[in-house]
TrEMBL record:
InterPro entries hit by this protein: DNA_mismatch_endonuc_vsr (IPR004603), DUF559 (IPR007569), Restrct_endonuc-II-like (IPR011335)
Record key words, sorted: DNA damage, DNA repair, Endonuclease, Hydrolase, Nuclease
GO molecular function: endonuclease activity; hydrolase activity
Keyword Cell cycle: no
Any GO BP: mismatch repair
Domain DUF559 residue range list: 81-119
Similarity field: Belongs to the Vsr family.
Originating species: Streptomyces diacarni
Matching Pfam families: DUF559, Vsr
Protein name: Very short patch repair endonuclease
Length: 134
């Protein structure tokens, strides 16, 4: 399992390429503020949009999750803890004013990139009653 990619997975890279091709600039693997050893896969710090592209196995996808037969109780606890950590991270970031977007690795990169772009656009617009650049 040590050879499994933790970052820069194929689905993540595919989404990033689409975002970049459409002029979206982002930061990679940014630390989650106030939480050690946790990172945001794709971060848009200005509008505060955090994107996670979760692997089906490691994050217990409801459609594709599998559980190893060997040492099954250990794996069950491990995968449950991963899902719990995802929820904690999401709540923490939302408490700091971030919009958190989570996608599964099996989702179409084009659709994922489109949803991300829309969220960034909405959060980048100046709010009514505020002046930008002053």
């Amino acid at each position: 399992m040590s050879r499994q990619a933790r970052q820069d997975t194929s689905p993540e890279v595919a989404v990033r390429k689409l975002l970049h091709a459409h002029g979206r600039r982002y930061r990679l693997h940014r630390p989650v503020p106030g939480m050690s050893r946790r990172t945001i896969d794709i971060a848009f710090p200005g509008p505060r949009v955090a994107v996670f592209v979760d692997g089906c196995f490691w994050h217990s996808c409801p459609q594709h999750a599998t559980s190893p037969k060997a040492n099954s109780s250990w794996w069950q606890q491990k995968l449950a803890r991963n899902a719990q950590r995802d929820q904690e991270t999401t709540r923490h970031l939302e408490g700091l004013g971030w919009q958190v977007l989570r996608f599964w690795e099996h989702e179409a990169p084009e659709e994922v990139a489109e949803k991300i772009a829309r969220a960034v656009d909405v959060r980048s617009r100046p709010r009514k009653g505020t002046r930008r650049g002053t």
